[in-house]
Amino acid sequence: MRRAQAADPRGGHHRDVNGGWLRPAVFGAMDGLVSNLALMTGVVGGDVGHSAIVLTGLAGLAAGACSMAAGEYTSVASQRELVEAELEAERLELSRNPQGELAELAQLYVAKGVDPDLAQEVARQLSRDPEQTLAVHAREELGVDPDDLPSPIVAAASSFGCFAIGALLPLLPYLLGATALWPALLLAAAGLFLCGAVVARVTARSWWFSGVRQLLLGGAAAGVTFLLGRLIGGQVG
Predict the structure, then answer these.
(1) Per-residue pLDDT, 108
(2) Which of the four, 41, 45, 51, 127, has the lowest number of CB atoms within 10 Å?
């Protein structure tokens, strides 16, 4: 897992945008909140009883969290395995043709504007250690850091936990005894706005724009499922 910030050799810091936990955490919370809110408003629109609403919310939380975790694990694991296969191919090429790989690395620096003689010397110095050589080639040719690959387990755990938290928000009022929809809507609306505002911390958007956007998107999803529940709820059974 990457650190929250990466050091800048010029003395500053940049937000890390490649971590293995941030994306699944953000999408897990968003998806859990929106999907379970929409699912529950749909059954509420169908005029079902309190126990059916709670059961629907719990089922949506459990199924969604497990599905998100499994999907994230498979996705990140597949990506990592692909990168590791490319790294192994690069390692083999370095052992078979070290001079050719050194010339290739020097040419990459020349293409970036470095003087050919200086590029050759930089490539030579960077190629002294086999593992460092592999890391340099991986960063320059593949755009990855072999020592900092995302973890499938971290991605799956982040997705599972954040989905469950998001999905719990619209369900919580019903678990505490509420019988009307509005407490769940209010809590979900606050959660939607907060999630959007938090996302703005790692983007260039303002917190209020991201918060309002997420609130509108989640509200639209809940509105659509509520209307569907109203239209077809009475005809099912």
Answers:
(1) 86
(2) 51
**Which tokens go with 47?**
């005029």
> What is the spatial distance between Cα 139 and Cα 121, in angstroms, rounded to a whole number?
18
Q: What is the CA radius of gyration of the chain?
A: 25
| Rounded distance between C-alpha atoms, residue 34 and residue 38, angstroms | 6
Q: 216-237 burial, b if ≥16 CB within 10 A, otherwise e?
A: eebbebbeebbeebeeebeeee
Q: Which residues are CB-neighbours of 51 under 8 A, at least 6 positions away?
A: none
Tally: H helices and E strands in the chain: 8, 2
Measured at the CA of 160, the angle between CA 158 and CA 164, to 5 degrees, comes to 115
Quote the crossing angle between the two packed helices 98-111 and 116-126, to the nearest 10°.
130
Please tell me the predicted confidence (pLDDT) of residue 237: 54
- Please tell me the pTM assigned to this model: 0.78
Q: Three-state SS string across 7-49, please?
A: ECCCCCEEECCCCCCHHHHHHHHHHHHHHHHHHHHHHHHCCCC
Within the chain, which residues score under 70 in pLDDT? 1-20, 202, 234-237
DSSP 8-state secondary structure symbol assigned to residue 129: S
pLDDT of 234: 61
List of E strands, the chain? 5-7, 13-15
